[in-house]
Amino acid sequence: MIKFGKGNLRVPQWSRRVFMVAGGCTPFRKYFPEYKLEELVMMGYKMMLEDNDLKLSPKQVKDCIQYAAYGEFADHFQDQLLCEAKIHDYLGLDPLWNTGIKTGGATGGAAMLNGCMAVASGYADCVLVSGWERMDEVDTRTGNFYISTAACKDFETRMGRIYSSYYAPMANRFAEAYNLSEVTRAKVAVKNRGYAMSNPNAQQPGHHTVEEVLESRMSAYPLRFLECCAMTAGSASALLCNEEMAYKLSDHPVELFMAGGTHTLRVADRRHMDIPLLPNEEPGMYDELLKESGRWPGFESFLAARFAAYLAYRMAGIHDPLEELDLVELHDAFTISDIQTYGDIGLRPYGQEPDYIESGDAYYEGKCPSNLSGGLLGTMHAVGATGIWQACEVFWQIQDRYDYIHGDKKWWDRAEKEKPADWKSLQVKDPKQGLWISHAGVGSHVTCGILRKAW
Amino acid sequence: MTKAYEGPLTTKFIGEPSEIYDDAGDFWVVNFPRSITHHHTYGLLTPFFKGLTQGKLLATKCTNPECTENSTWLPPRADCPDCYARTEWVEVPAEGTIYAYTMLDYAGIGIEMETPYWQIDVQIEGVDTIFKGWLKEGKPVTGMPVRAEFNTANPTHTILDICWVPK
Ligand SMILES: [Zn+2]
Fold it and tell me: Which of A35, A159, A295 to mutate to test the interface with B (most CBs of B within 10 A)?
């Protein structure tokens, strides 16, 4: 059993408020040979500088940056250790300090958290957070092997050499424990890939049906190809700053609250723990559930996500996530990991996760729509960029700029795509705050970020 | 004692480094093939892998009287994460019940097994964690009893030296 010491549950208190004022990304593709890695990063970085209605010119903004947090999951993919140094040099930011961050799938989220810490602590007033992955130097199955080495190489990697096979047992456990049907799982894929149709940067958009998802090729039972995200090349950037800089740079800054949690690399090493309760939960409400399942988090839930949300909600003063959040971006690397997270972050109590999809709450114009960007399933998982790009998508929603970022012909041209005739605006009406989850491994690292309209 | 690698030192590069993979656009994409060997230590967990070759399933247990948990770990750990005491080796039953499972169909490159196959997570009496493995025959169901078989004749010296069959 895991037991917390007295000091372990302290809610982080930042010394200064933290704001996000700009975001940028590239189109996301399976194969992106037209640009070198640093050129791809420059593309997202320049979008951040030029397309966010900042009140200073790109050169003036550059002159404000004091620190850079860079996210990259796997050196293997680029075959280049310490890409950070090459990128930083290429962006013309030498000799400012930079840090490379690597926390698996949560790398982008962790880079954002690192950037927040730099602003909150006073290390810097203006911080660049940038992340990337270039998974197109190797074929898909070699890429699958690289990613699978993020499982335990002594006791797990040889059992699959593909990450879906480490999530699949959880999917089966979850289905049995919480009565999840494969149709509900498929609906997640249909929804997110469908929303990706409105995103010019999306890698795998598509108007699929539940039947198509269920008929797609099996990766690891019960997870099918259309339930798994793909290899991606691309980058994303975000600009974070303190309050004074936020006034200086933007008329529409967004305040940022953020925390993280971690758990075992091997899912099977999880031991029982008392469930840390979210602000909207009552002591004793999970007694029955624990009696049946015997252990928490078991294979059903992500302790790291619960812990990150436990802290982030208290940092941001959120009491009822479903009522107070206007949208969420969740880490739907697999349909099942998306569904598992609904309980962890309190969109539904544990055991009732499928209802978030089935009730319609998760859809556009629902109570708290999720993954309007297209998510990882529909748009991308350029791992080191993912958690940054998710933040950008929430940020643009809160700024009421979804239509510009996703609808302007300029972006469809940049992506060398035709804007669909049935393109649909997914701008949430008058959003005040949103959340995003950046999630790694089989829940080994998770960050929970909350973006709130500042003024 | 540390042993330096004393294999042959070759400077020969395998492959065609200058081969162009893609020049369909204004860019060149160039192939860089190579083959790599790692020398990986099992460190203090070596008895576990040796145990497999002797038909034994070895776990580690914290026996420190000061420890609040005294957990039994499989996969094993040389150091207790609760109290940091050095753990002790214990033989655990080579049988258990299926806690979770999947059928692996599409594998990453380099998989040493033939797909598709059943991957299972096994709950073992007296062990505090759950142990990942594969089912050699039969079809898994949650709660199904299984027993281990060991590859003692032709060991691979990897975790693949243990598999499970219905009990
Ligand atoms: Zn101990």
Answer: A159
Q: How many domains are contained in chain A?
A: 1
Q: Is A13 exposed, middle or buried (0-12, 13-18, 19+ CB in 10 A)?
A: exposed
In a domain, A36, yes or no: yes
Calculate the dihedral angle through the C-alpha atoms of A406, A412, A413, A416, rounding to the nearest 10 degrees. Answer: 140
Nearest chain A Cα to B75, which residue? A155
Per the structure, the complete domain to which residue A81 belongs is given by 19-138+232-249
Residues in chain A closer than 8 A to B25 (CB atoms): 33-34
Q: List, as one string, the DSSP characters of chain B.
A: ------S----PPPS-TT-EEE-SSSS-EE------------GGGHHHHHHHHTT--EEEE---TT-S---EESS--SB-TTT-PBPEEEE--SEEEEEEEEEE-S--TT-SSPSSEEEEEEE-TT-SSEEEEEESSS---TT-EEEEEE--SS--SSGGGEEEEE-
Q: Point out the residue among B108, B128, B132 whose CB comes nearest to the CB of A161.
A: B108
CB A107 within 8 A of CB A72: yes
Mutate to test the interface with B, among A4, A30, A269, A334 (most CBs of B within 10 A): A269
Alpha-helical segments (H) within A67-159: 75-78, 83-90, 107-121, 140-148
A80 domain-assigned: yes
Question: What integer pLDDT is reported at residue B16 of this predicted model?
Answer: 65
State pLDDT tens for residues A107-154.
999 999 999 999 999 999 999 999 999 999 999 999 999 999 999 999
Element (H, E) at A235: strand A233-241
pLDDT digits (tens, 9 = 90+) for A346-364: 999 999 999 999 999 999 9
Amino acid (one-letter) located at A177: A
Q: Using one digit for the tens of pLDDT, what is the confidence trace for A373-386?
A: 999 999 999 999 99
Averaged confidence pLDDT in chain A: 96
Q: What is d(CA A25, CA A47) in angstroms, rounded to the nearest whole number?
A: 7
Q: The tokens 């060398």 sit on which residue?
A: A416
pLDDT bracket for residue B15 (50, 70, 90): low
Q: How far is CA A382 from CA A108, A136, A147, A303, A404, in A?
A: 9, 10, 12, 24, 23
pTM beyond cutoff 0.90: yes
Which helix (H) or strand (E) segment holds residue A437: the answer is: strand A433-439
- Give a yes or no: residue A59 inside a domain: yes
CATH of the domain at A119: 3.40.47.10
**Residue A8 maps to a domain:** no
Specify the pLDDT at position A295. 86
pLDDT value for B10:
66
